[in-house]
Write a structure and sequence with these properties.
Order of helices and strands: EEHEHHEEEEEHEHEEEEE
Structural class: alpha/beta
Strand content: 25-35%
Number of strands: 14
Helix content: 10-25%
Strand order of the largest sheet: 4-3-2-1-13-14
Distance between the termini: 12 Å
Length: 237
């Protein structure tokens, strides 16, 4: 069993969840670590904090719609990230965690993680693409079929995607189609603060890991659980 923690949408308030991160094998942040998204200082302070967490073996980060500089000035921001050796930043990329032993005898134990920041157009924020467009479909088509953990900033349609005080679902239809097709074991996202929570459909564990509510108060705890990556069973910590 692997110990996993999931957070998202910290919006410069990342220190508030520090006490609720017990340590383990994998820590994932699903985007929106910045507030305005224009100030390098916001990103640097977050990178320093995320890098300083020393009780997880692997720490993975994607960007969200508030993290404008990650899209507007990627050369500068990715250059900054090279100084933080413990952070795996994914932007339409995969990382594989190798648990197959020294001889590679158990490849089924390896964990393939894919991260992407895009979402259907949401005001004039970052990583926006027109809803149901070919450009957005191409982003989701690029997700490998054998992905075990999928990280996106926004939710797929129908899962943890209802804003607080509303009844309409705002998740991405094209992402839902791709998730239904490839059936990752875990899909973690954020973006819709009012839909924090977990749902399991028999194939995939869906986690909206937004730790702030819609008033940007630290209301929702990080998800901490033990995960059997073969059976896909989880045990809450």
């Amino acid at each position: 069993m692997l110990k996993v923690s999931l957070i998202s949408d910290t919006h410069t308030k990342h220190h508030l969840c520090e006490k609720d991160l017990p340590g383990g094998d994998i820590l994932i942040h699903a985007g929106d670590f910045m507030s305005t998204g224009y100030e390098v200082r916001e990103a640097e302070e977050f990178f320093q904090w995320f890098d300083s967490i020393d009780n997880y073996d692997t720490k993975i980060l994607i960007a969200g719609n508030h993290d404008r500089l990650m899209e507007n000035d990627p050369t500068k921001m990715l250059g900054l990230l090279t100084g933080y050796k413990t952070i795996e930043y994914l932007q339409d990329e995969e990382v594989v965690l190798y648990y197959d032993g020294p001889n590679g005898d158990y490849p089924e134990d390896n964990i393939r993680i894919y991260g992407s920041p895009w979402q259907p157009e949401f005001y004039n924020w970052a990583f926006n693409l027109i809803r149901n467009s070919e450009e957005l479909k191409a982003k989701w088509d690029a997700i490998p079929n054998n992905t075990d953990i999928l990280i996106t900033h926004g939710p797929p349609f129908g899962y943890q995607d209802i804003p607080g005080g509303h009844s309409i679902r705002v998740g991405c239809d094209l992402l839902r189609y791709r998730v239904d097709e490839i059936k990752p074991k875990i899909h973690v996202f954020g973006h819709i603060h009012g839909s924090w929570g977990h749902y399991y459909n028999g194939h995939t564990h869906f986690f909206n890991a937004s730790v702030l509510d819609e008033r940007y108060l630290y209301t929702h705890s990080p998800f901490n659980f033990e995960w059997d990556n073969i059976t896909n069973e989880i045990k809450w910590l």
